[in-house]
Amino acid sequence: MSAIQPTSRAAARWLATCILATTSALAQVHAADLAVTVKGARSAQGLVLVALYDGPETFLKPGKHAGVQMAPADVEAVTVVFRNLPAGRYAITTFHDENTNGKLDFNLTGSPVEALGFSNDAFGVAAAPAFDKAVIDLTADAAITVQLR
Question: Which keywords belong to this entry (predicted)?
């Protein structure tokens, strides 16, 4: 005689299905950490600001970032960590705010005068790169390096 009766088997199957569905759902919302190391600061003056964007519609739009981190500049490297991010596509932009005014400074021709960089070391031609060129597919904890130019 089986220890599980027909109605118990149905209940066991239902419970197994629920556990599998819950496990799958948890895997999809798994939070991950993204460590970003920034190299190439010209001096130890000021801050390195790092902004995280989660879609092309918000990429480089002021105030539309999904997260921002800052750290004192260091000529060796600066590392910041964005924690508990849902799996997804992200892009990073960073710059060395040498005068600590909280913004990227430009010269009279519109070119940046402070070093900046993007994830994947992406750069556009006479403009910022598109989101897709700088995108990172985050599915688990990851670490990237961005070189300031």
Answer: Signal
